[in-house]
Amino acid sequence: KSSGVFTFGGTGTLLYAIRLGIEKALPGSMQTGLQGDLPVVVCSDQAHYAAKTAASWLGLGLQNVVAIPTAPNNEIRTCLLETELRRLLKEGRRIACVIATMGTTDAFGLDSLEQLHQIRDDLVREFSLDYVPHLHADAVIGWAWSVFRDYDFNLNSLEFPDRTLRALAGANRRIRHLPLADSIGVDYHKTGFAPYISSAFFVKDANDLQRLSRD
Q: According to the model, what pLDDT value does residue 190 have?
C-alpha cells in the first residue's frame, strides 16, 4: 500500500511532507490555495534547517514553524512537544506536520518516533480532530541504520567492538519504529554514499501521494 517518488534532496522530501500535511489539515487547499489561519509545522530545534526552507517556500512562513527544545543528546523533549501541541490545538490552530528528526546532521540525534506517534494519536482523540496531523520521519541520514533491524546484537556475528555494538543497538531502538511514520525522507547521497544528489520520499499510504496530484 506504500508508494514514493524520487526528488532532488532532503529539502525536496520535506516539501512533499509539509505540503501533504497542509492538504490534510486544510482539505482542498491544493485547489484554493492557503486561506484563513495558516497551519503550523512542529519540529525540534535541532531539526534540519530545510524544514524552515520548505515551510517558507510553501507559503506558511517561518513564524509558523514551531521549534521544540531538545535534550543534551539532541532528542526532542516529548513532554514539551505534547504541551506545545496541546496549546496550539486549544488556540484553534491546525497542525500540518510533525517532523521527527531521525538522525541530526552532526551528532546523530534521534527523536523517539514511537512517542511522537503516540502523542499525535492521543491528541487527535482528545480534541476530536477532523483530520490527523501528518507525521514525517526526516530519516535522510538515519535510514541506513535500518539494515540492523533484524541483527542479533547478542550473537554479534559480525564481531563489532563493544562501543560500536552499543551505538548500533541504541540507534536501532529508534530507527526500528520508522514504519509508524506517515512518510519518510531518504537521502542516498548521504549515508547511501551515492556520488550525486538523490533522494526519495516514501508514504505509508499510496493514497497520500494522490492528494498531491489531483487536478
A: 86
Q: How confident is the model at residue 214 (pLDDT cuts 50, 70, 90)?
A: low
Does residue 98 surpass a pLDDT of 80? yes
Which of 123, 70, 126, 118 is CA-nearest to residue 95? 123
H or E segment at 55?
helix 50-57
Give the Å distances, CA to CA, from 89 to 10, 60, 112, 203: 28, 17, 22, 25
Q: What is the pLDDT of residues 143-153, one digit of tens each?
A: 999 999 999 99
| 134 conformational bin, left if phi > 0, alpha if psi -120 to 50, beta if neither | beta
Helix (H, G, I), strand (E, B) or coil at 38: coil
Q: How many CB atoms sit inside 10 A of residue 13's CB? A: 30
Name residue, grid cell 542479533.
152
Whether pTM exceeds 0.90:
yes
Phi, psi of 176 (to 5 degrees): -65, -15
- Angstrom CA distances, 104 to 134, 158, 169, stand at 20, 26, 17
